[in-house]
Design a protein that fits this description.
The protein is an alpha+beta fold. The chain is 18% helix and 27% strand. A 6-stranded antiparallel beta sheet has the order 3-8-4-5-6-7. A two-stranded antiparallel sheet has the order 1-2. Strand 5 (111-121) and strand 6 form a beta hairpin. The protein is globular.
């Protein structure tokens, strides 16, 4: 179900390093993770569509993560509830670009949303996700809507390395 999220879109106030940045010697995995994020960002503004998995028609949250990861040879279920069981469980505080974060409305409820980590910065965790506002970037740790619903995180990338 689409979350009833409200509020302005927020974006990181710093640029993420790129593979050709002077910061330079990124590991293959770190560079791969940034490639995933860069690709995901090409869909900013794409419409929300329940059960959508196609950028021409729209995405729902798990359709978006399914579509993006498929481009990089990472096989995910198209369901956020199933995606929560894929990859390796990690601490939300230690997420890296390309990791997935899952949300619940309350502790005992089922997962209802998934997002893809863009950056884990001192001022918060930035994610890209398909919401009722379309594909947007949000700082979930400063969001009164998202922060209380953060439930778990999974690393679905490092298994490729």
């Amino acid at each position: 179900y689409p979350p009833l999220d409200k509020g302005p879109e927020t974006r990181p106030n710093t640029e993420l390093p790129t593979n050709d940045s002077p910061a330079g010697n990124l590991s293959r995995e770190a560079a791969f993770r940034l490639d995933i994020v860069d690709y995901a960002r090409t869909f900013l503004g794409t419409d929300y569509l329940y059960a959508g998995r196609d950028p021409k028609k729209g995405f729902d949250c798990s359709g978006f993560t399914f579509f993006v990861m498929d481009k990089f040879g990472i096989s995910l279920s198209p369901s956020s509830r199933s995606q929560e069981g894929q990859g390796r469980k990690i601490s939300v505080s230690r997420v890296q670009p390309g990791d997935l974060i899952f949300y619940r409305r309350s502790a005992g409820s089922q997962v209802f949303h998934v997002s893809l980590v863009v950056a884990n910065e001192a001022d918060g965790i930035y994610v890209i996700h398909s919401t009722s506002r379309g594909v947007v970037v949000d700082n979930i740790t400063t969001s009164s809507y998202w922060a209380p619903k953060i439930s778990s995180a999974r690393d679905v990338v490092s298994g490729k390395f």
